[in-house]
Amino acid sequence: MAHYLIYFNREWVGERSEAWIRERAPLAQAAVDEMRAAGVCVYAAGLDDAGTFSVSPADDGTVAFGDGRHAPHAQWLGGFTVIDVEDLAAARRWAARLARACGWPQEVCRLVPELEDAGPGA
């Protein structure tokens, strides 16, 4: 089994009305519920951009805190799901389920195992 991250950038949602987004919410929740019922969902969440702040390390070992994003950019993470499945094919099937439910693209990537799980040479 391997962990995969399924995620989307808020920009990919496009210019949708609040009513359209509300209509999709139960469909997206049903997809996540289906993942939970299948025993593959590790965690799923949308992100609230209103509370975003940054933490930046300095060369002297201190950190700087800032309100908002570290650097302005057009894309920001809108939500993600971590799943534990056999292989990429299974991860792609679940990502397709989420994409259909949400109505916008999803990306999938395999999470790198923790160092102690990575084996020799990690």
From TrEMBL:
InterPro entries: Dimeric_a/b-barrel, YCII. SUPFAM superfamilies: Dimeric alpha+beta barrel. It comes from the Bacteria. Residues 27-98 form the YCII-related domain. Belongs to the YciI family. This is YciI family protein. It comes from Luteimonas composti.
